[in-house]
Amino acid sequence: MPVDDFGGVFQYQAIIGRLSLTNGFRVEDHSLFKKTVTPRSSAAYLLRQGSGDFGATKLKFNFGLAFKEPNLVQLFSPDPFFLGNPHLRPERNRSFDFGVEQRLLNDHAKVEINWFDNRFRDLVESETTDPQTFASTFINVNAAKANGAEVVVDTAPVSGLKLRASYTYLNSLVTRSSSSPVSEFGVGHTLFRRPRHSGSLGAIWNWKRLTASSMFMYVGSREDSDFAGLVPPLTSDPSFTRLDTAWAYHISKNFTYTGAITNVLDRSYMEALGFPALPIEFRMGGRFAF
């Protein structure tokens, strides 16, 4: 069955004094799901100018609608383990966030505090239909929400060194569903694999020809499913931490030696049930520029 998809974007930007505006919309014309218009709007207002220990203050606001059609596997797959569902509806999302950005210490530090609220309709998820054979198909979760807050701190304490710390609190909930209340997609359940608490610490260091970076992240426990009817069932992923590091050394104008170590502490964890993460991994290479 042929599927045609056409999209177009219009965007308008303006600066009016201390106010910056970005407005636009996207038009999607899908042969199965017809025409959809998704507007988006952003605004930033410089509430306070200045430098010093307590510098500029900026207010930020974003609003938008989104549309995502199911892919061909979700719609038409003949595989009984991932059976397609041609009756799927496209995913839709309404997002809203606002925040404040404060610069400090002569622009050597910046603090951002953001609040966000997302409302979802018809999220596409995979649901087990037969625990004995592991057969599954794709369904729409009728309605869900995800809201919370984020704090980000950036600082440059000395020349060449940048540090960043972030923390996110997320509250998600299925608010309307055609699935049974005891199902993992039933009303009252949290959204799959979305941790309530997460955060990171990162550093970037530039010294002569060397650029080095590291990232330590924490991901809290989150709801999941073994989809197999185990007794007792597995219903969550435990929290985990991971440390990554990378570097680039500019040997000459045209050649850079690069390297990276993922999962430096060799942690054992699963980002999703049944999919263990790789142990410590090392990669290196070179990049030529002409």
Keywords for this structure?
290 residues, mainly beta, Maltoporin, Chain A, 13-stranded antiparallel beta sheet, two-stranded antiparallel ribbon, 2% helix, 63% strand, globular
What does this structure look like?
Helices cover 2% and strands 63% of the residues. It is built from one helix and 17 strands. It has a single domain (53-288), classed as Beta Barrel (Maltoporin, Chain A). The chain has 290 residues and is an all-beta fold. A hairpin with a 4-residue loop joins strand 6 and strand 7. The strands form three sheets. The protein has a 13-stranded antiparallel beta sheet with strand order 1-2-3-4-5-6-7-8-9-10-13-14-17, with no helix packed on it. Strands 11-12 form a two-stranded antiparallel sheet. The protein has a two-stranded antiparallel ribbon with strand order 15-16. The longest helix is centred in the N-terminal third of the chain and has 5 residues, at 72-76. The mean pLDDT is 90.
